[in-house]
Protein phosphatase 2C homolog 2
Amino acid sequence: MGQTLSEPVVEKTSENGEDNRLIYGVSAMQGWRISMEDAHTTVLDLLASSPEAAKSHPQKLSFFGVFDGHGGDKVALFTGENIHNIIAKQDTFRAGNYEQALKDGFLATDRAILNADPKYEEEVSGCTACVGLLTDDKIYIANAGDSRSVLGVKGRAKPLSFDHKPQNEGEKARITAAGGFVDFGRVNGNLALSRAIGDFEFKKSAELAPEQQIVTAYPDVVVHDLGDDDEFLVIACDGIWDCQSSQAVVEFVRRGIAAKQDLEKICENMMDNCLASNSETGGVGCDNMTMVIIGFLRGRTKEEWYEEIARRVANGDGPCAPPEYAEFRGPGVHHSFDDNDSGNDYDNDSSSKGKSFGVGGYRGRVIFLGDGTEVLTDSDDTEMFDNAEEDKDVANQVSKGSLSGISKDESGNNSQEVIGSPITPEKLDSKLDIGGKASESSKTGEKQN
């Protein structure tokens, strides 16, 4: 765990915005860490500063990103200030190939950092990058690292990114092929993620392409066709995801929307809920936190969008956190749990924290609030899957090569030649089974945190 303060910095930097297509809110908080190393970007009209470029793009484009720094804030700040413009300058972007433009732009951002100051080659800092490029009818998510993007589909969490961890098989295969090693879940015993912008000490092989380095900035890209059930998108750093599951976050956000809260206020409330009540939690709830919520208006006014989601919640159309969530203010680490089928009664004491449970056949989660309150939510993270046991963790399947570009050769070993094979929309949807289409392509396997 990183160094911590004697008291957390709980002041938050928040903002919001909207146009006739989208509404968003974002908030960031330093928390217990000795400095703030996160950065974020929110751009409703990516082409506003370039009328010529806008002529060649029939749809308005919006850009949102979260960049979780480590080893300092230099790379995160540079990335947050520049990556969207760098992506927009790629030839593939001008040609309308947004998926490839995101990949090109991530690698170009790495190069731009070094071009800005050669001393960065010895800079030990780096950052994750999880960004969303939004058109009228599609979401393009590019991710390098363990920040995460999750779509709320009528209260159910649909992952649009996959965490890059060194211990994942595909990532480990690339790391070792490049001459590195994984020890205690860290690249060369040091870095807790396997893909990042910056971290140039792991990118020094002149013989290897950027996407083949021990640590690479090359992102996975997921493309999703927006549907009527898609309510909002959440992009956040691991300061949120280490404390809450994707499903718990979606339900929390949905409850806030049903209560007509501003999106940035929902972000603030989530961070209060995640913030550890002390710094002795092993790092959970002690990290910097940044969270962005983007709502899809799809021809509705902001008021109509709020009303539609509130109506769905009132009618029980999809899971949602209990009403208490709209009122509670932290701090306190709040755990979400996978349930089992044991049927054992939940033992209401401190030793039960972190355990699965069953209460009178009711399947759900217990959230421990900072004031000692225990809340039973409506659902668990397996709701989105037809087969909860087989498909419980899509990201874990990706890490093992079953959905990623890493395939197995006849001997069962990872085959590097086929890195880059995309997930088909049908294959990913068959796992998620909640509508919409997504495709994922990856040249490498994992990344660090």
